[in-house]
Amino acid sequence: MIELLLLILVIVMVGLNSRTGKRVAALERELEAIKAALRQQAITLPSPVEAFSTGTAAGALQDRPASPVELAAREAAEAEAPLAAVAEDVGTGHETVVPGPALKPAAQAKTRENLESYLGARWPVWVGGVALAFGGIFLVRYSIEAGLLGPAARLTLAGIFGLLLLAAGEIVRRRAMPQMSERFSNAMIPGALTAAGAVTLLGAIYAAYGIYEFIGPASAFVLLALVSFATIALSLLHGQALAGLGLLASLLTPGLVATEEPNANALFIFLGLTWLAVNAASRFRRWTVVPMLANIGVGLWAVAYVAGSDAFDPLPPVLALIVMIAGTGFFWPGSRYEAGASARTGWRSLLLRPPLKIMLSIAIMTMLPALVMVLCHAEGAGMVLFGFAAIMATLAALGASRIHAVWPAIIAAAGSILGITITALTWYDYVPQSVLPTPADGQPAQALTFTNEITVYLLLGAVFTLLGFAFLRRFRRPEPEFSIVWAFLMPAVPVALAFISFLNFGNLGRDWTHGLYGLGLGLALLAGAEWLFRQGGDTTEDGTGPSVDWPANLLVAGSFAGFTLALHALTNGIVTTILVSVLGFAYLLAMRAKPWPALPWMMAAATLIVFGRIAWEPTLIGPNSLGATPFFNALLPGYGIPTLLAIVSAWLLRDSPDFRVRNLMQALASLAALMTIAVLVRHAMNGGVLDSRVPTLGEQSIYTLVTVGFSGILMTLDLQRPSPIFRFGSMIAGVIATINVLSLHLFALNPYFSGENTGRWPFFNLLLIGYLLPALAYGLVAFYARGRRPMPYVAMLAVAGAVLGFLWATLSVRRFWQGDNIADWKGFLQGETYTYSVVWLLIGVALLALGSKLDAKSLRLASAGLVLIAVVKVFLIDMSNLEGILRALSFIGLGAVLIGIGLFYQRILVNRSAPSAPVDSPADSQGTTS
To answer: Which interval of the chain is the signal sequence (predicted)?
Structure first.
């Protein structure tokens, strides 16, 4: 069945090639006719010298319209020159540039092919090559099954057949027309024949080794390698597909030739030579797919070796990967790509710069084996980590030396941080405790063990800083986006690596190694920022002024990060928290000498770092060292000094043209002040303990008072100096306080539900601080917010205050009848029930009078609501629970109050209508008065 299919394919190929040959012959005849016409025209027309010497003749030649024969001759001459140059290029393997307008760009020279071109010129070529390869394989199989020849003869015939195919490919290539070589460069018949011959030879060599054992592993390895390299070399003549075949054969050769004692050095030397050969050929012919496949193949071999080896030697794969990275920088210097990249700007252009496939593959396929190395062989001590750092540093150097290597720079930074993190988290588990050195002079054993590792961490970070300076020195002006990337990486990577090293292997008390490293890094980056600012930044697109110099400002931020690292390494506890805020404030004060935009942002960053430290350890010095003295304890300077500096910073930035940092500092200062007061209150109300216990009503009441007061303070600041932070911050504080009232004061912490004792004093008790004082605070803020804040917000404050006041009065009545404990399990007394009605009605009347005096409709509505509640209570509760005189007095009192309220409203309505009534009639005037 297979033989029949191959026969059909051959017949189809012969038919299609016959038809193609006829068309080529017709094109040759047309070309010869055009050449003859061109020669005849050259004889009849005068020479250029004669044309310029005779003005009349020249004018006549310019004015005379060209004949169709002349036009055809000119077009043929224009088309013949580049085709001849291409033919010479294909024959010699050199790149040829044809000057003048006759040579069009490659993208314009290619014409769209139809279905006939694909079916007749491309598909049969490669199918025919595959058929020839299968034919050789089936021929050997047939000889084996029929027993015609011995193994040696079969292999000899297979080798001869492969060599004949290679020779046929060369013969056809030399006799092929240049037009066919250029148009069908990916489906050339010589390439297909050469590929079939290479596959046949590879199969014969492997059969001689793996099946018949005629040759040993070393001989088989050498022969397979020679055929693979020869295939790669022939790809210069036959195209990229043949190079891919040679690459595939080279990558499979080490796996096909297996030995009992594999040699890692020989393996990676061979892979390195294969990679160099493929990239040399690809650079010569400007291929990008085959180099990408070579990067992937060698990277996967390195991963397989690292993950599958018990006795791991990191030197061979590390050297091979470094050769790949350095070779990429050498083979792809980018003279062609840099010219195009410099003309295109923008982040999208930066991330998609060619040769994108090569840069992405080299970055990923060198980082991946390095990560597998530190993940699978953490017991390899310093050699593994040193090899990992060498790979990442070399990859970063590639990213700093080529403007199209942005991905190697980014992936090197990410891989360095990820690999060092993996190492730091797993290293100590792999180190046997028996190998730990004996402590000397009280020095911890861990510090002695990890000295080399710390050195590698810090040196790898320093490499990124030096590479960043080198890149900025060369490419800062022509590459603004890439400069931003390096200005971010050069401080971010060393600081991240140093922090990881310090937290895992450093002395958390005082570490001079990491401290001095952070100090030196901060000074170096600060000097770099000064250098960049002195050079001056770029201008805006419209040319009206300087734009933001991002590289210089990022170096300022990096210097702050370096100094922060030094503070964490050289100090601890509350001292670190205070000094971080002092450092940020120093950067802010530096604006008086250096108008750098990044300086005030460092104060905001310092405040955020202080918040983070507080979230990590709220006591700042440890819960056992805090003490129980209210207010005057370590919390006051630990929270107070950063808060004070934040407030002063916000005040200094009140006129800053950068409204973003101004608003941010106002928000951070406000939050820091509120947090400081809350923590001090928490410490004082809980006997010097800061924990997550549920607050009492008294403590929560203080928080509510602070929040409401904070809302009023922000409102005042907004009125003096309008700011969205103050405006929205005041309303957010009011909303938060109201939520606490509705959830905690009303239900969760209510002494009626919680059973908390209210105290022995009749008036100065828990109900005063828990309900009456917050009610008064809400009332004052609501009154202050009238006309200054949206009406719904003012109404919310007023309602919250009214609810708190109502609860104070109601719970005070219950305390009067029930004593200190007003829990719900005590039930209700008849006198208590009656008193509620009286108090509610009195409050309603008082609110009505106050609302009338202040002309406050909200108070009058609150009065009506409270009276309605009293009415409902009298009719539903008092009628059923009260007896005797109390029931009668309840209804009598309710009726009297309601009648009085009605009379009051009637009088108000009559007085309001008096000005609009006529006053001429004495009767009307008397009636109005009465």
So the answer is: none
SS3 at position 546: strand
d(CA 903, CA 891): 18
Find out whether 358 and 332 touch, Cβ atoms under 8 Å: yes
Q: Where are the chain's structural domains?
A: 2-90, 125-261, 263-382
Q: pLDDT category, 19, cuts 50, 70, 90? A: low
pLDDT tier at 661 (50, 70, 90 boundaries)?
Answer: very high
Q: Phi first, then psi: what are they for 608, rounded to 5°?
A: -65, -40
Q: Using one digit for the tens of pLDDT, what is the confidence trace for 578-594?
A: 999 999 999 999 999 99
Count, residues in the chain: 930
Where do runs of H (alpha helix) occur along 93-188?
106-109, 115-117, 123-146, 151-175, 178-183
pLDDT of residue 715: 93
Q: What is the tens place of the pLDDT at every residue in 756-774?
A: 999 888 888 999 999 999 9
Cα–Cα distances in angstroms (integers) from residue 538 to residues 478, 534, 544, 549, in the given order: 11, 12, 11, 7
Specify whether the CB–CB gap between 697 and 756 falls below 8 A.
yes
Percentage, residues of the chain above pLDDT 70: 70
Candidates 688, 808, 831, 679; CA nearest to 750 is 808
* C-beta of residue 620 within 8 angstroms of C-beta of residue 635: yes
Q: Is the dihedral of CA 913, 915, 916, 918 positive or negative?
A: positive
pLDDT tens profile 284-317: 888 889 999 999 999 999 999 998 877 778 899 9
For 538-553, what is the mean pLDDT?
64
- Provide the total of helices (H) and of strands (E) in the chain, helices listed first: 40, 0
Q: CA-to-CA distance for 371 and 417, rounded, in angstroms?
A: 10
- Which pLDDT does position 434 carry in this prediction? 39
Torsion angles phi and psi, residue 539, rounded to 5: -100, 165
Q: Classify residue 539 by its DSSP letter.
A: B
Residue 734 in contact with residue 728, Cβ under 8 Å?
A: no
Cβ atoms within 10 Å of 700's Cβ, excluding its own:
22
The tokens describing 850, both together, are 């106050």
Task: Give the alpha-carbon dihedral of 631, 676, 499, 664, to 10 degrees.
Answer: -160
Give the whole-angstrom CA distance, residue 500 versus residue 497. Answer: 5
Please indicate whether residue 212 or residue 678 has the higher confidence score (pLDDT).
678
Beta-bridge partner residues of 539: 546
d(CA 727, CA 717): 9
Does 263 or 292 have the greater pLDDT score?
292
CA distances 55 to 42, 47, 63, 389, Å, are: 20, 13, 12, 76
Q: Are 529 and 596 in contact (CB under 8 A)?
A: yes
User: 734, 608, 721: which is closest to 672 by C-alpha?
Assistant: 608
Q: What helix, strand, coil percent values describe the chain, rounded to 5?
A: 80, 0, 20
Q: Any idea what DSSP says for residue 122?
A: I
**Residue 447 structure tokens:** 């510090």
Work out the widest C-alpha separation in the chain, in whole angstroms: 147
**Using CA atoms, how far apart are residues 291 and 283, in angstroms rounded to an integer?**
9
Q: What is the DSSP letter of 755?
A: -
Residue pLDDT, tens place only, 460-474:
999 999 999 999 999
Residue 378 has pLDDT above 50, yes or no: yes
Q: Which residues, listed in sequence order, are joined to residue 546 by a DSSP beta bridge? A: 539
Sign of CA dihedral 449, 451, 456, 462: positive
Which among 462, 472, 467 is positioned nearest to 397, based on CA atoms?
467
* Structure-model confidence comparison of residues 76 and 480, the more confident one: 480
Cα dihedral value 695, 696, 698, 701, nearest 10: 50
> In terms of Cα–Cα distance, which of 244, 240, 108 is closest to 187?
240
Query: Comparing 395-404, 540-549, 903-912, which segment has the lowest mean pLDDT?
Result: 540-549
> 546 φ, ψ to 5°?
-70, 140
Torsion of CA 884, 886, 890, 893, to 10 degrees: 110
